[in-house]
Amino acid sequence: MNNDQREFRSANLTGADWSEWRFSHSGQRRRRRRRVRLVMLAAVAVVLLVVAISYGYYRSQVGGGSSHVSVTVAASPGEGLGQFAGSLASKGVIGSSLIFRIWLRSQPSVILQAGTYKFNLDAPYAQILATVSKGPILDKLVIPDGLTLAQIADRVGKLPGHSAAHFLQVAKSGRVRSPFEPSSVNSLEGLLFPDTYSFDPSTPDSKILTMMVDAFVTEAHKLGLTPQTREDNLSAYQIVTLASLIEKEAVYPGDGNKVARVILNRLSQNMKLQLDSTVVYALGNTTANLSLADLKVQSPYNTYLNSGLPPTPISVPSESALAAALAPAKGNWLYYVVVQKNGQEAFSSTYADQLANEQLAKSRGVG
Predict the structure, then answer these.
(1) Per-residue pLDDT tens digits for 72-91
(2) Domain boundaries in the chain?
(3) Residues 175, 208: Cα–Cα separation, whole Å
C-alpha cells in the first residue's frame, strides 16, 4: 500500500471517490514542489545578488575614486599595514579597513616604515600600496647663510605641524644645547649650520634643532674649530660670534679675512666695533637702512654704544665666515667701507683714509 492509499483510507472516503481524490491530491503536491522550487530559486537569486553587490562594492573600494583632495596619515613605529588600515579609514583614504585587509592578503608583502604619508581621499588600493612602498614623505628645510634664529624659526613655522613660536621657544630653552654654548647662555643663535635638511613632518622641533647643532659641530671640527679652541684671546664661542659678524659685514666674498682682522684690531685697542649689522640685529630688522636714532638704541648688541663683541652671535655663519674667523688676514686696518657696487670693500688704518674711501664710494654711487 502506497502513501496515497494510506492517506485516502485515513480520510474515510468511499471507493467511488478514489480517482477524484487522487487527482486533487496529485495537483497539491505539484504545487507544493513548484513553490519549493520557486523559493529555492529566489534564495539562489538573493545569494547571487548579494554576491554581485558585495563584489561590486569590493571592486569599487579597491579601485577607489578620483578625488584630488589629499591628507596626511602618520604611521607609528612597529605598526603593520593591517593596523594602518584603521588610520587610513578614519582619514577617508579608504572606505573599509576590513576590505583593505582582505585585499592585502593577495598582494606582495610591503614593509610599513614609521613616518608620515600623503594620500588622496578614496585612493585606489594599488596606489596606496605604491605610496607606502616608497616610504614616508619628507619635509625639506633650506637654511641659507646669515639667517638669525628668529628667521630660521619663521621657515620652520611654515612647515605643516610646526610653529615659529614653539621652535624659537625650544631653541632658547636650553633643552637642546651645543658643545660650543657657554653654560651662561641658553640660546642656539649662531650655532645651527646653514644647510638643506630633510625630515619627516612629524619630527619634533627638538630633534630638528639637534640635527642642525650636530651639523654645525661636524663642519666646525672639519675647520679645526672645537669647543676648546682659543685664538686671538677669543674662546670658541667668541670665534663663532666673530664669524657671524664677518657673515654680515664682509659683503664681498674675498674680504672675510680682512674684516676679521679689522674687528680683532679694534678689540685689541678697546675701540667700539661700531657695526651696523649688530644694530640691525638689536632692532630685529631685516635691512640695514638705519637712522641716527637707530644707532642710539639701548641694547647690548649696539656696538656703537657698547665695547667688545656682542653677547651672542647675530646669525648663522657660513663655512667661509668660520674659516675667515679662524684665519684672519695680517694687517693694521681699523676701518672698511664698500667702494664697489659688487660689494668689494676698501680697508684703511687711519680715519682720514676712511673718510677718503667714503668719498670714493659716494662718487661711485655706492652706499
Answers:
(1) 898 888 888 888 999 999 99
(2) 3-63, 70-134, 149-333
(3) 12
Are the CB atoms for 22 and 8 separated by under 8 Å? yes
Q: Kindly state the DSSP code that residue 189 receives in the 8-state scheme.
A: T
Determine the straight-line distance between the first and last CA of the chain, rounded to whole angstroms: 128
**Grid cell at residue 271:** 675701540
Predicted confidence (pLDDT) per residue in 318-357, tens digit:
999 999 999 999 999 999 998 887 778 899 999 999 999 9
Cα–Cα separations (whole angstroms), residue 344 to 46, 167, 256 = 87, 36, 11
Q: Specify whether the CB–CB gap between 143 and 152 falls below 8 A.
A: yes
Which neighbouring-strand residues pair with 120?
70
Beta bridge pairs of residue 119: 71
Which DSSP state fits 11?
T
Its CATH class, for the domain covering 70-134, is: alpha beta
Q: Are 131 and 118 in contact (CB under 8 A)?
A: yes
CA distance 366 to 165: 38
User: pTM of this prediction?
Assistant: 0.73
Q: Residue 245's closest CA among 231, 259, 235?
A: 259
Whole-Å CA distances, 273 to 78, 304, 309:
56, 7, 8
Query: Reduced to 3 DSSP states, what percent helix, strand and coil does the chain have, rounded to the nearest 5?
Result: 50, 10, 40
Cα–Cα distance between 51 and 45 in angstroms, integer?
A: 10
What is the grid cell recorded at 309? Answer: 663683541
Q: How many CA atoms lie within 13 A of 26 on its CB side?
A: 7
Q: What is the pLDDT of residues 18-57, one digit of tens each?
A: 566 555 666 676 777 778 777 787 777 677 666 656 565 6
